[in-house]
Structures are given as structure tokens and as C-alpha cells.
Write a structure and sequence with these properties.
This protein is an alpha+beta fold and about 375 residues long. The protein contains 13 helices and twelve strands. Helix 3 packs across helix 8, helix 5 packs across helix 6 and helix 10 runs antiparallel to helix 11.
């Protein structure tokens, strides 16, 4: 067996083993490269000969119709091989393989000759195949053009259409994941599949969006933890940043790395406090951060606690108003002397009779004794208009 097919089959076997391991570990079930002639044809055309996936699917649709991927295919008219070469073209196959170290009965040798013949004898076909879009439509166009101008079977129009449909409807869906890097839905979730058969793990940036795929390659959405931090992604897996509302609670995710923030943060000149679970505590929000220091923040919190204590210990109702003639009461107490202050205070209390006679307090003070007062003046009444 020649070296390329040995290499491809070894590589394909490795992919099958990898698939089994993935299934055992509940990793996503990713289609693996195998060693059938059909698959070997695709990988040789793309990996070795440089055709796009769409062009390879177009070529494969023609080979499928001519020989069903069997290099030893032979018919009674003398047609032989993958593309049923006849006459001088069949002789050219043998000569090319002998000159280039290929076995003319091998898949590898016949595909290499196919490429050589299109480049040298059918350059228009070759150039067209190399120019098709790498899409389902491109696969159809490649198959149609190769059938019509290279194979040229009877009923070329009908055959070309059928082979085009096989390329776009059968082979392209089967091999698209090996033509470019694509999102792929599996039974375990969505993965990002590379055309070499591997899938992505970790952070991924595509088209200005950032995604996270866990250790099994599964795309994460909603709240998730990675590298010991919490992140948020929308339903398509794109990472979200800034202020976000989840179940009527508000959170902030760093614009730099997307992680959920906690504690004191500053946003657009304002300072906010986020609890340990990331929820915004609006009562601790400062309206303006300009000039605010850590000491200011601590003082603000202390003032809030003191205010709450004062509110709890405040009287249930407002105190009674002082009498309008409180100044006269104060002067009377001073005139009556220190021994009479208590009684005067009682007399002057709201609700008591506010008529005060100096004789009730053990005699008039020195100031009162020396004054020439009438009996009416000696009786001082407080609280009357």
C-alpha cells in the first residue's frame, strides 16, 4: 500500500478512536474521518491537491456516477478506473503513474492523474472548478461543469443536472464541516468545529463577539463560571458586559473581561456598591463620585447606620409645645432663687396652673424684697395673653 493511503487510514483510525473516547466521556459526538474510498477521495482532493470542499464534492459526484469510488471498475467497452478512462486516456493513466511512482490501480494514483489531466488537457474545467464558491451552490456548479465538459456522457444535460444535485444535496452536507470552520449542533449542545476535525475549547472571538466553550467544547449561555469567575452570555452564547438585569436584580459585568463585579465600583463618575452575589445595593449608591475618597465612603455608611438608629429611638409623637411666655417663666425662676426652681418648674409645666406667687417659695428674693410693688404686681401670672 502506498504511503499516502497508509497515512490517511492511520489518521482516520485515530479519529475513530478519538470519537469513542469522546462518547465515553460525554463529549460532543463529532463526525470523525473514516477510511472509506469516498472519504479518502475527499481528503486527498482537498488536503493534497488543493481543491475547495465544494469543488471536491463536485468531482466526487462524477466519480460516484462513473465507478462508485472503486479504482478497479472495468466494463466491457474497455473503460477503466474512477473516471472510466478509455483508449489513449487509459494509456495516459498508466504512463503517468509509472513516471510518478504511483500504482495505477490505486485511489491515490488515479486521483493524481485526474488532476494532471484536467490541468494539461482540460484547463478550462480545472480553472472553473478552482473558482466556484465554497458553498452548496458551488458544489452543484462544479459537478455540472465537470460532467458536461470533462466526462461528457450521453444525455449530458440530464446527467449534469443529476450529478449537480448529488454534489449539493448529498456530498456537501456530509463534508461541509471539513471545508471550513463552522458552528455545529450536536446531541450534547453546540460546538465550534474546525475543518481539521477538532473542536474549540475555552474563549473564542468571532465577528467581534466573544464566546465560551467548556472543557467538552459545549457553548455556554446564561450565567456560567469559568476560571473561578462568573460571566453572562445571551441565548446565542455571546458574552454580555455592563449593567444587566437578571430576575429583577441588577448586576454589573466588566467591559474589560466580562466578569461579574462585587464590592465598590465606579461607573461613569458614579460609585456603586454590589453585594457578594453581585446584586446592586441601591441604598449604598453615591450620586456623585467627584472628589469622594475611601474615608468619605466609610463616613457615608456610618451616617446611614446612625440615621437608622436615630429613627428607631425617636419618640412616637412630637413633644408638647412650650408656652408662649416661657421667657417670663425663666425670669421668675431666677428671681425666686435656686431653692424655688423646682417648684417653679412644676408650676410652669404645661397643664398646671401658671399663676405664681413669690410668697409660695419661702419669701421673695433680695431683688423682690427691695422693690416697691403693689399687691397686684406681686402676683405674676404666666401663660395668659
Amino acid at each position: 500500500m502506498n504511503s499516502y493511503l497508509t497515512h490517511r487510514k492511520t489518521k482516520a483510525t485515530a479519529f475513530i478512536c478519538a470519537l469513542v473516547i469522546c462518547l465515553i466521556s460525554l463529549a460532543p459526538a463529532v463526525p470523525a474521518r473514516a477510511a472509506s474510498n469516498e472519504e479518502e477521495t475527499f481528503f486527498f482532493l482537498t488536503d493534497t491537491l488543493g481543491y475547495s470542499g465544494a469543488a471536491a464534492c463536485g468531482i466526487m459526484a462524477n466519480i460516484r456516477a462513473e465507478s462508485n469510488f472503486y479504482p478497479g471498475a472495468y466494463n466491457s467497452s474497455g473503460a477503466y478506473g474512477l473516471c472510466q478512462w478509455m483508449g489513449g486516456r487509459r494509456g495516459s493513466l498508466y504512463g503517468f503513474c509509472d513516471s510518478n511512482g504511483y500504482d495505477s490501480d490505486s485511489l491515490e494514483g488515479q486521483l493524481a492523474f485526474l488532476d494532471h489531466e484536467m490541468k494539461t488537457r482540460y484547463p478550462g474545467v480545472y480553472n472553473y472548478l478552482m473558482s466556484v464558491d465554497n458553498t452548496s451552490e458551488g458544489a452543484y456548479d462544479a459537478a455540472y461543469h465537470m460532467c458536461y465538459y470533462y466526462e461528457a456522457p450521453a444525455n449530458r444535460g440530464g446527467q449534469s443536472s443529476r450529478r449537480g444535485s448529488m454534489a449539493s444535496g448529498t456530498f456537501w452536507p456530509r463534508y461541509e464541516i471539513y471545508t471550513k470552520d463552522v458552528w455545529l449542533d450536536t446531541a450534547d449542545g453546540r460546538i465550534y468545529h474546525y475543518k481539521d476535525g477538532t473542536y474549540h475549547v475555552g474563549w473564542l472571538t468571532l465577528d467581534d463577539e466573544i464566546y465560551y466553550l467548556d472543557a467538552n467544547g459545549i457553548l455556554r449561555a446564561g450565567l456560567f463560571t469559568a476560571d473561578g469567575r462568573t460571566y453572562l452570555a445571551d441565548e446565542n452564547g455571546a458574552r454580555l458586559t455592563g449593567w444587566q438585569t437578571i430576575d429583577d436584580a441588577t448586576y454589573y459585568f466588566s467591559p474589560e473581561d466580562g466578569s461579574m463585579q462585587t464590592g465598590w465600583i465606579e461607573v461613569d463618575g458614579q460609585t456603586f456598591f454590589l453585594a457578594d452575589n453581585g446584586k446592586l445595593e441601591s441604598v449604598n449608591t453615591l450620586a456623585d463620585k467627584t472628589g469622594v475618597t475611601e474615608d468619605d465612603i466609610a463616613r457615608k455608611a456610618a451616617e446611614k447606620e446612625n440615621h437608622e438608629d436615630e429613627t428607631v429611638n425617636a419618640p412616637a409623637s412630637d413633644p408638647l409645645p412650650l408656652p408662649d411666655n416661657i421667657n417670663d417663666v425663666a425670669e421668675s425662676i431666677q428671681s425666686a432663687g435656686s431653692d424655688s426652681q423646682t417648684a417653679a418648674a412644676v408650676v410652669a409645666s404645661p397643664g398646671n396652673d401658671t399663676a405664681v406667687n413669690p410668697d409660695d417659695f419661702g419669701g421673695a428674693s433680695t431683688a423682690m424684697q427691695g422693690a416697691d410693688m403693689t399687691p397686684e404686681e406681686e402676683l405674676i401670672t404666666f401663660g395668659e395673653n
